[in-house]
Amino acid sequence: MHSGVLRMEIANLSTKEFKEVLSRLDCYLFVKDVDRRYVYANEAVAQLFGRSADDIIGCDDAQFFDLDACNELLVHDKQVLNGESISKVERNVDNDGFIRHYQTLKTPIYDNQGRVKGIFGLSIDISESIAKRDQLEYLALRDALTGVFNRRYLDMQLKREVASHVRRSKPLSFVMIDVDNFKGVNDRFGHSVGDQVLQRIGQLLMSSVREEDYCFRFGGDEFALLLPMTSALSAYQVAERVRSRVVGINFLPTRERRSVSMLALVWRS
After folding, report:
1. Which of 13, 95, 123, 148 could cross-link with 215 by S-S, CB 3.0 to 4.6 Å?
2. Other C-beta atoms lying within 10 Å of the C-beta of residue 146
3. Do residues 90 and 101 lie in contact, with contact meaning Cβ atoms separated by under 8 Å?
């Protein structure tokens, strides 16, 4: 006997009950027609777009997303309308100017004749996870004290750039930098002052090279510059610019100046 037990079948749910369930979910649910216009959006989507769910019906993505995001969404939607189910990370710039990332699942909706008549989509905001991942990747490749790239990334990038040089026969320069008498700084003024010197030199190096160049710290007081597409003469000019800028700075409480020693390796074209 099953008297007193409430049985439910999905087919018996009314459209209203089904929409109420979907609106309570903490994810973005939507349906588009073959013209890529919204025919359904749950409450989470309405809040995201800053419109009521009813106002979203009949709109397309151009009214809610920037141009780059619209182009990306168009490519994905065309795949679904061609019968594919996809899972993509999509991005958009929100109303406050922040980039948001969404893990989106999309699948075709078929009519009784097996023809695609729309798109069902489900999105989850993964911006926080993406930010944490990017931060971990940043920390894994950066020197914690100075902010320049670390020895691990030097090993990786040097192999890539040398391989690129071999393929393309383009010049490549590598400049090694050593802070002169750095041990004396630590001995006389303490490690905290020594750390400040290294931080200042790291900042100076990053501001002395191009965006496509790389700055590394690969030892206690040892730095390096990896300069793609840079001839021996240009590498010398970079090194001289760094040397003169280091000499021109008063680093320490006693107003002492520092100097650096350099060695350049050049792969010629």
Report:
1. 148
2. 21
3. yes
Distance, in Å, from the CA atom of 47 to the CA atom of 52, rounded to the nearest integer, reads 8
Secondary structure (H, E, C), 189-229 = HCHHHHHHHHHHHHHHHHCCCCCCCEEEECCCCEEEEEEEC
φ and ψ at residue 32, rounded to 5 degrees: -120, 155
Q: Are strands 28-33 and 214-217 parallel, antiparallel or unpaired?
A: unpaired
- Give the containing element (helix H, strand E) for 105: strand 99-110
Residues 6 or more apart whose Cβ sits within 8 Å of residue 233:
none
For tokens 């192999």, name the residue.
159
Q: What is the pLDDT of residue 264?
A: 78
In SS3 terms, 129-159 reads as HHHHHHHHHHHHHECCCCCCECHHHHHHHHH
Residue 102's pLDDT band (boundaries 50, 70, 90)?
very high
Token look-up 């400040």 returns: 196
Token pair in block for residue 228: 């793609």
In this prediction, residues 65-90 reach a mean pLDDT of: 93
DSSP SS3 for 49 = helix
225 contacts 163 by C-beta, under 8 angstroms: no
**Helical packing angle, 127-141 and 151-168, nearest 10°:** 90
Q: Can you tell me the mean pLDDT for 120-130?
A: 93
How far is the C-alpha of 79 from the C-alpha of 36, rounded, in Å?
Answer: 12
At 135, is the pLDDT very low, low, confident or very high (cuts 50, 70, 90)? Answer: confident
Torsion of CA 131, 133, 138, 141, to 10 degrees: -170
Cβ of 209: how many Cβ atoms within 10 Å? Answer: 18
